[in-house]
Amino acid sequence: MNRFLRVTLLLIVLLTACQPAKTTPVPSVTPVSTETAVPTAAPMKMTFMAGYKPQADLPFVGVYVAQEKGFFAAENLQVAIEHSQGQGAHLQLTASGKVQVTTQDAAVLLQRRADPSLPLVSFALIGQRGQQAYAALESSGIKTPKDWEGRIVGYKGTPPPDMFAMLKQAGADPAKIDLVNVGFDPRLLSEGKVDIYPVFKSNEPYLLQSWGYKLVLWDPADFGVPTLGLAYVTSDDTLKQNPEMLTRFLRASLKGIQYASQNPDEAINIVMKYAGPETDPKLMRYMLDAEMKDLVIDTGHANLPGWQTKAQWQALADMLQQNGAIKPVDVDQVITTKILEAVYGK
Amino acid sequence: MKRSTWIAGIIVLVFLLLWQGMVWLFKLPPYLLPAPSLVVLTLVTNASMYASATLVTLGEALAGLLLGLLASVLIASLLSLRPALEEGVMTLAILVKSTPLVAIAPLLTLWFGFGILPKILITSLVTFFPLLVNLLTGLQRVDRALIDLFKSWNASRWEIYSNLRLPSSLPFLFAGLKISAPLALIGAVVGEWTGASNGLGRIMWLAYSNLNLPYLFAPILILSLAGMLVFRFLIWIEKKCIFWQAISMDE
Amino acid sequence: MRLVVRDLSHIFPGKPPRPALRNLAFEVESGQFVAIIGPSGCGKSTLLRVAAGLLLPDQGCVELDGLTPAQVVAQRRLAWMGQSPALLPWLTVRGNMLLAQRFRPSGGNSRVEVEEALQQVGLSEASQAFPFMLSGGMQQRLALGRVLTQDAALWLMDEPFAALDELTREKLAADLLSLWQPRRPTVLWVTHAIHEALRIADRILVISSCPGALVADLPVVLPRPRQEGTPEYQNLLSRLRAALGSGKP
Prior knowledge:
Number of domains of chain B: 1
CATH architecture of the largest domain in chain C: 3-Layer(aba) Sandwich
CATH topology of the largest domain in chain C: Rossmann fold
CATH superfamily of chain B: MetI-like
Order of helices and strands of chain C: EEEHEHEHHHEHEHEEH
Number of helices of chain C: 8
Structural class of chain B: mainly alpha
Oligomer: heterotrimer
Distance between the termini of chain C: 27 Å
Distance between the termini of chain B: 13 Å
Helix content of chain B: over 70%
Number of helices of chain B: 11
Largest sheet of chain C: 6 strands, mixed
CATH topology of chain B: MetI-like fold
CATH superfamily of the largest domain in chain C: P-loop containing nucleotide triphosphate hydrolases
Largest interface: A-B, 45 and 41 residues
Number of strands of chain C: 9
Strand content of chain B: under 5%
Strand content of chain C: 15-25%
Radius of gyration of chain C: 18 Å
CATH class of chain B: Mainly Alpha
Shape of chain C: globular
């Protein structure tokens, strides 16, 4: 019996002592002189949780770069970077204050505010257009949404309202479409299990093209459907109690995005540090380039990255409501321009 | 080497050759089914990454298993000494077991932070129920003749428990461990099945979302090997501990 | 220890209920070796379990020196030996003996007594062996040795040699006798072996089939060692057989 215990104890010691450091690398602090640094900054700490896995989504990239190039340090802001466990855990953790800033797709944010009334608010909109589009193989001969009728169309999660809005615009009849629930698996398209597959513009198209397939893509925004992309999100409480911290965060992250747009190769190297060798750097580069395109769209506010207006959010909310995706929600509760104003000095 | 090990080795080899052959024959692209040669190559070129990830996952699995073991020993012992509590406690245990981990995981992060502790707790939740059931059965199912003997010695409930029930529950404990040890491995991987952690689960999840199947399959190889080794280890320890019973595994 | 059985009755619940004992009554003087014989399943085990404090009877009682069995168990003055040797398989022969020692009332150099007991049951050489290495006979000898170390005033034995072959049984019965003679505790020994009972016991009680009641009470006043061929022996044997055959008082 003693022998058994001793062997077990030895094993425990060995295995629990051999815990490598977390893969989140130690930030390399190269202080960058920044003219926008607040002079008498008291040190602040916060946790940022990316709303998905480590990859080159633009809001994530801004944070990774800001960490590695010392932009956070220059703001005297210590940021711990985490990634979501999935199932919307990042939203729960932000709502409860365990995490201070996270990211979220605008439409989903509206939905969560409507039900179950998560007290979350967007303080910067990085993706001025939505991330989703729909793809078919060029070889299928499908050219317009009207051609979707009688075909198998996949959707992720719940049937997307932007798709129905797009079909309506294109004069197609949603009832004539065979809807199937799919997960993340573009092979369903390449192997012909679905005719139309829902993609993230910055992701699956690259994979399919790298496998040698040519695609046709439909972006609902091209059909006049209001869509918005990823936002930086915080809780009502954090916004009220710590706007200074959020301002520093946003300033540094936007600087990170700007740096990435000018130094994309270096930015991808930084992303790979967080993502690991299972990730394809070429895919990451594709993702970064694709999302950069949606960073600034001429909507009349002087091309300020991250800016958001009530009008654009209201348009999205109306579209969602018309398509039965949400209950009425007060858009003023969902967004704030306070932090943007502080950063841009307006 | 024993004959059965030879046979096992040959079966595995044949399986691998068939797999390799299929990929070559049907010209399957790596994103549909990678060849074993590619998987092994991936494993070898990233040996240190996989090694440290394996240590993490194994560490979580072991810690979770031990925690589950501790909890089940305490609870089973309590129920054996105070049988009146059995129904109530078992109802609670079933409640805990039936709650889907997906619902609990964010709560654990909320209370215990972002580190390794929530993963260990998830693993222990997964392992403790089979251990509890087996251990309780073992503590209760003692030869009546022995109980009579102890009673005639005026042994107290505690003395019967520590001298008789506990040692005679060992075979049942090992039966429970043979179920819970593989569960612990699965539990640890499931707990890591996000980008939010370290370990083999994280690698698999990231690899899948990049449809990078060679990177996905390499951990599967590692986990199968680990599972096999753990099982053999348990059988070896069982033979050492329960030396009075002939365990017929090697014939 | 003087043993008095008063009007003992017990019915095991069930469908149908099983009556085990009915108005059983007898007395045993201190130091007597009593064999109890009877057809299977007629309450002999029940009687012994009541005497050992393992069962509370529906009616009646067993008195041990005026005390209840529970009280005597608390004083650890009785020793129990069942059909199965009831050994702890993870302890050696010596370990099993020492365990019994632990449950004795305090006092005495227990180690020495264990050695003595091992010697008396002929297991000194095997003291480091484990029970699974021993034959059935050796295992029961160990159980017997355990009883010795307890130094009890009452030995309750429920068919201890029933699972063994005839030769081993005879040998063990003889051993039992030689172990009993120097100490003379009171012994209630349930057995099926008529000849062994005649050879060893001071008195033989015959109990009928269900519900168990006393059929015959035969004192065996013959000097030991007893010869099978003698007329007194044969007389007792036929009386015993008759009592067993008739099944009634």
